[in-house]
Specification:
This protein is an alpha+beta fold. Helices cover about 25% and strands about 50% of the residues.
C-alpha cells in the first residue's frame, strides 16, 4: 500500500471516531509536532490528545495530497467540535514522514479560518 493510501485509510478511521485503527497505522514512537504549539511523542500521548480534542470525530476536506519518497503532504480544512458545541474550521498543512509503511512523524501547520 502506498503512503497516500495509508494516510487516507488512517484519516477515514479518525473521521469515524476509530482512534485505535488510526493508531494501528502509526509507529510506536510516532511524534506529532504542532508548529508553534506542542509536541506529542508516542502512541499513548497521541491517544490521549485524540480523546481530549476529538469529542466528535473531526471532519476533513483534503484539497491536495502529494507523495514523494517517505513523505506525504496533505493540505486542506479540518473542522473540530469545540467545548462550546460549535464546529470550528482550520486550514492545515500536514507533512507526514513514513517508516516501514507506517506513519512515524507529523509536522502540522494549523490556522483557524
Amino acid at each position: 500500500m502506498d503512503h497516500k493510501t495509508v494516510l487516507k485509510k488512517a484519516n477515514s478511521a479518525i473521521s469515524e471516531g476509530d482512534h485505535e485503527t488510526f493508531l494501528a497505522y502509526c509507529m510506536e514512537h510516532i511524534k506529532w509536532t504542532f508548529m508553534g504549539d506542542q509536541v506529542l511523542s508516542g502512541k499513548d500521548e497521541i491517544r490521549q490528545y485524540m480523546a481530549d480534542t476529538y469529542k466528535k470525530p473531526p471532519k476533513f476536506n483534503v484539497e491536495l495530497m502529494i507523495e514523494e519518497d517517505d513523505y506525504v503532504t496533505a493540505v486542506g480544512i479540518i473542522s473540530l467540535f469545540n467545548e462550546d458545541g460549535q464546529w470550528i474550521a482550520y486550514d492545515y498543512c500536514d507533512i507526514w514522514r513514513f517508516e516501514d509503511g507506517q506513519m512515524a512523524e507529523l509536522k502540522a501547520f494549523v490556522v483557524e479560518k
